[in-house]
């Protein structure tokens, strides 16, 4: 029932990077660019690499995690494998000093990686709403 099922709701990954295999010839993955959903064009033997939220925090927002979703297509089976590279649960993530980032300009607070993942997973998957977990309120 592809007309009734989206596939995977919009989100950004809570990883450092994500490596995704895709089908050679079935479109499904879409990224959000300037508010529009743009399909990722299939190519032979693809590996898609997504920047995840941990890199956003480390870079104090200089690098953006991509909002994406997966859509189904009638009559076309689709399989993707996602490998999420995530620090150990106990690793504390915070903006890196060497990103020219004194504490006074931090947009993200120090969070334990496991807490960030679990707090994000508790929330409804809704684009980048879960990144609030690590944001410093202004
Ligand atoms: O199916 C895909 O290509 C994307 C899957 C995905 O975004 C995820 O598992 O986080
Ligand atoms: Fe994803």
Automatic annotation (TrEMBL):
InterPro entries, sorted = IPNS-like_FE2OG_OXY, IPNS-like_sf, Oxoglu/Fe-dep_dioxygenase_dom, Plant_2OG-oxidoreductases
Keywords on this record? Iron, Metal-binding, Vitamin C
Q: Does the keyword Thylakoid apply?
A: no
Would the keyword Lipid metabolism be found if you checked this record's keyword annotation? no
Q: Which domain of life is it from?
A: Eukaryota
* Entry's Gene Ontology molecular function annotations: L-ascorbic acid binding; metal ion binding
Q: What is this protein called?
A: Fe2OG dioxygenase domain-containing protein
